[in-house]
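Hey team,

Sharing the small monomeric GTPase run so nobody has to redo it. Sequence (137 residues) first:
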Amino acid sequence: ALTVRFLTRRFIGEYGDMEFIYSHNLTVDGREILFHIWDVPSSQQQAEEGSSEEKRIQWADSFVLVYSICDRASFNILPLKIQFIKAAKEGQSQEKVPIIIVGNKRDLHHHRVVSSEEGRLLALSLDCSFYEVSAAE
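Structure output:
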């Protein structure tokens, strides 16, 4: 939902467990940037073997890991995923890999189980950026 919102400015609430690669042109600071976004649902990632996830990691230049503020399990898996990404990407070079942690569903604050502070602290401890958003809003 967050990827589609970024690409189309529209919110669609229901998705299947499908993997998609999107391409999108965007002008940033007067420069045209071509994004290729490999969007993989978390449940699919957890079911696959590491080699497929390793392929995605090698393909990407940066990472946006999204969790639901209403789902503790989606938050708890992040440290392991980030360690896996850093080991795969930073092990090859001295360059830091850009990783952003995004807490989604901020509009559902009444169902919140992961605090903003927890998200900020996790990002700080793993040297990542952090944002909280609502794809619906």
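Residues 42 and 48 are 10 Å apart (CA to CA).

Ping me if you want the raw files.
A.
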